[in-house]
Amino acid sequence: MEVEGKLRLADANAHRRVTNLLSPFHVVTHRQKNLFFDGAASELSERCAVLCLRFYGDDERCIVSLKARAVLVGSVSRVDKDEEDLDPCEQRRMRMCCRAWKVGIGGI
């Protein structure tokens, strides 16, 4: 189960104030790239599900993530989440496929 809180900030000044308030608690910044997938007929979106490949750094880590059945109450989202790490060989293969798909020379 993943729980996310989302803030709607009025402007850049509000963002700066929140950043200043939270900055003492900052531990690490994760450099990541997320690639989202759905069927041609939006089969996942229709079921409020999200399928994602999340790449960390260059080739440090890759996770396949499926989120479904999100419930939003008072700006707090609770969602069932299943994540699996890809093994390093499969990770590199998926990264190459995603790059090829992005530039239009292949597909998944």
UniProtKB/TrEMBL annotation:
InterPro entries: CYTH-like_dom_sf
PANTHER family, per database record: OS08G0299200 PROTEIN, TRIPHOSPHATE TUNNEL METALLOENZYME 3
The name this protein goes by in its record: CYTH domain-containing protein
Native species: Vigna mungo
